[in-house]
Amino acid sequence: MLKFIVGILKKVIIGMILLFGYNTFLSSLNLMIPINVITIMIASLFDVPGIIGLAIFLLLNY
Predict the structure, then answer these.
(1) What pTM does this model have?
(2) Which of 7, 9, 11, 33 counts the most CB atoms within 10 A of its CB?
């Protein structure tokens, strides 16, 4: 059970780091994904494809 919780926390932290890195590099183009619970969950579940999907969703609604 502890291994499962540590694995989930690790994925959440990696998702947050990915979102922060995306926002850091593309803030000059004003293409920032807000960091909230929903985007962190998507980034945690799907990793890099989730970030790409969020970026495409951002571009389609811009």
Answers:
(1) 0.85
(2) 33
Question: What is the largest distance, in Å, between two alpha-carbon atoms of the chain?
Answer: 43
Three-point CA angle 28, 29, 30, nearest 5°: 90
Is 54 within 8 Å of 26 (Cβ atoms)? no
In eight-state DSSP terms, residue 36 is: S
The rounded distance, in Å, linking the Cα atoms of 11 and 21 is: 15
Residues of the chain under the 50 pLDDT cut:
none
Decide if 33 contacts 58 (C-beta within 8 A). Answer: yes
Q: What is the DSSP letter of 27?
A: G
Task: Give me 56's structure tokens.
Answer: 């495409």
